[in-house]
Amino acid sequence: MYAVDTEVVIPKYPLAANEATGNTMLSVNTANCSVNYNRADFLVPHRKDYYFLVFVKQGSSRHWIDMKPYTIKPDTLYFSTPQQINLKEEPKPFTGLSIAFTEEFLAMHENDMVRNLPIILNPHNGHQLDLNAGDLVFVEDILNKIYYEYHTKQNWQQSMLMGFMQILLIYLSRLYTAQFNNAAQGNERILLQKYLQKIESSFTQLHDVVSYADMLNISAGHLSEVVKQQSGEPAIVHIHKRLVLEAKRLLFHTDQSIKEIAFMLGFEDASYFNRFFKRLVNDTPVAYRTRIREMYH
């Protein structure tokens, strides 16, 4: 039996640098009765390696998320998370605003609250939020503020953007909770969420899948199979991503030495931490800290 690389079968697209700003972690764009996709992207199942929000003012195109088709409705917000599979079916024009942001952008926040919001974790594997008249006024207003701030270079721009984004994501999480509160979850989806929650509470102490399987009272093989099926990524990748995210936060927000950060994350050997970080980020911790601080300070 031959192993199949799912990243080859189902490609994962990174966030392209914004044409107007060059930003590779946050992109904010409007569409005015236009098609913002390449025709070659249609009918190609893929994952986005970033979070994606689209407010549709007008439009009627059709697309799929995982195994479910959606026909675009006006005055509706659509969202996707990195583990979901996307397929665009109809290249019809739409009017609205889109925001794309990466894990690295979320890491810029000083606490875990934003990253743990329902709209980010998406425990119900949702995609569509219906907006009433009051929601519509609030969402359009904050989206317009984000668009203006993003495309107008001013002092403290990053802080303003992060503040506006936090407000938007909290508001959307309230809508998410209200809309999906009674939705049923399959046992396997629940297991994935429990696994991610265990990682969140123990990633600085436990770096292997077996330890988390023991905490959940199941075999490591079964956990790995379910996590891969539900998220599209091996179970160990989720542990590694959480470690890298925290390392990036500490490198950006603190002046701790690399050795101190390694110890805080549960690495006994700083040189091994350096190799681990470089393998996953393609930058040494020192180089990453220099680059990210030059970008935002």
Automatic annotation (TrEMBL):
GO terms for molecular function: DNA-binding transcription factor activity; sequence-specific DNA binding. SMART domains: HTH_ARAC (SM00342). InterPro entries: Homeodomain-like_sf, HTH-like, HTH_AraC, Tscrpt_reg_AraC-type_HTH. Keywords: DNA-binding, Transcription, Transcription regulation. It comes from the Bacteria. Residues 193-291 form the HTH araC/xylS-type domain. The keyword DNA-binding applies. This is AraC-like DNA-binding protein. The lineage of its organism: Bacteria, Pseudomonadati, Bacteroidota, Sphingobacteriia, Sphingobacteriales.
